[in-house]
Design a protein that fits this description.
Elements lengths: L1 H15 L5 H11 L1 H14 L3 H24 L10 H27 L7 H29 L1
Helix pairs in contact: 2-3, 2-5, 2-6, 3-4, 3-5
Amino acid sequence: MEAETIEEVFYEEAITQKIYTLNSIRAATFFGGPLVAGYLISENYRVFNEDKKSKLAIVYGAIATIILFGAIFMIPDNINVPTYIVPLIYSWLTYLIVQKLMGGQMKMHVTSGGPVFTIWRALLVALIGAAVTLAGVFVVIFISGFIR
């Protein structure tokens, strides 16, 4: 009986907090990159009271961003890859991963009447995340220019 009471309290707290939907995460990831995906996933995990997973999502997003930029810089110049292909791939991969890891929790949240953020908020996060990522790239390029 005690466990049911604790679950009910948790459920009532979680139902009042907003989450990002799968489509919002996918769209924001397309425009903002893996770092944005890590942030949005982290925010959802925080709502679901999974603090360890929330922290790991940020770390994985940062690692994925570093790997992505390393891979992009390794593509030879003579290979013409349309600019939208890489973001399309990582945004769909993110969608599939999020659906597998927390899709059930998200669906239960939404079907229970839980609030969600609009896609516009997710796209604003993507814009901010893209600016931060580009600033980081410029800093790395600037510093590497002084090292040579």
